[in-house]
Amino acid sequence: MSDLDKQPGRLRPAPENFLSEEQIREVAAGRRSFLRRSLMVAGAALAAPLAARAAEGDPAILELPEWSTTLGQPVAARPYGMPSKFESQLLRRESPGLARVGGASVSFCPLQGLFGIITPSGLHFERHHQGWHEVDPARHRLMINGSDPAFLKKPKVYTMDDLMRLPPVSRIHFIECGANTGLEWGNVAVPTVQYTHGMLSCSEFTGVPLKTLLEDCGVDYKKARYVLAEGADGSSMTRTIPMEMVENGEVFVAYGMNGEMLRPENGYPLRLVVPGVQGVSWVKWLRRIEVGDKPYATKDEAVHYIDLMPDGTHRQYTSIQEAKSVITSPSGGQTLLNQGFYNVSGVAWSGRGKIKQVDVSFDGGINWQTARIEGPVQNKALTRFNIGWKWDGKPAILQSRAIDETGYVQPTYGQLRKVRGTKSIYHNNAIQSWKVVESGEITNVQVL
Ligand code: MTE
Fold this sequence. Notes:
This protein is α+β, with helices and mostly antiparallel strands. 14% of the residues lie in helices and 27% in strands. It has a domain at 127-185 and 200-315: Sulfite Oxidase, Chain A, domain 2 (Alpha-Beta Complex), CATH 3.90.420.
């Protein structure tokens, strides 16, 4: 058996004017002169039949646009590349009326227009409590200290140069604000996936494991069981992180995002990356890490980012983002053009590890089919799924359901509300439903 026989996908039936299967085998067997001669023959014969046989589709292909015949822009016309002007509507957007002050608001990521799993840096969602700043990296410092000398032997202050000399890691992770989908607890509140799920992004972050820094400062893991991360902006953002997350090497101080330095809105020059944990713990403009032996109960964890339960009590320190998924295309606010084939695409993620499976329903959760997952599947990262769907012009309800490697299954609104009620803001990971009507219009609905 030749190598070509083992790869039948590469052996298409030979159309006239191209090499036959037998000829291809001979080429593969090393008869190069035969290839040259045959290609010339094939090339000469190509023009006539192609012109005679009109291809199906838009005849505009035959009109040569002017730009095809003129000199294009010079290489350095844009020293920093920008998207095409025809893509200028794909923007992060602020939800009108969400906050009275722009500096304490959110701009949502346009998930409906993205492919794959990486969020372009310019479209990464933003959430600031007190606005963003252009920080001079030459003047930025990170201090590692401890509330008791027994926790840490040598407290230290690092410059950005100090940090960037240390061995780095680069890892792809999602970041999701705990308040993502928070407007939908009671009822449908917003029309598009940008606003229901757009406090979500996924990037490759580069930086130094916090473990490396703590060990450099002589941490005693037996005594120091928590770290407190503090940001340098006016919001004094402070969050407790359990030491197990640091000790296992997952938490890192990041200066890089998608191959370049962080963007100012995302914490330039330094932020904390806490994989799987809600975005608020990913402290931006990171200036201090303190080690201690108990949770710090700061304002951003004792009063904010807590879950109001049906009995009126609050849950604190529920920071891990449970498995969740959403169909991003087609989705709310879009309109199907006509009946026929559509690729249904979305993203799934879990703060507890990898996504194992994503199921999709076209009838509001009665029947489920397993979607195709685009690998490689990464730990605590967005995972893209796709599935083909033939729309018959009738009403439909599209849903996706994520299952992670722990076996956890994304809940319905009915299941989630049974435990959590309807008054929460944070940690809504219910199954999202998009309703399609005969006109092809798609809206946000909730199915219990
Ligand atoms: N860090 C500081 N210093 N100040 C902030 O306002 N916002 C937090 C977190 N880190 C915040 C911060 C919140 S609530 C979220 S969801 C994420 O940053 C958002 O990160 P992003 O703006 O890069 O998307």
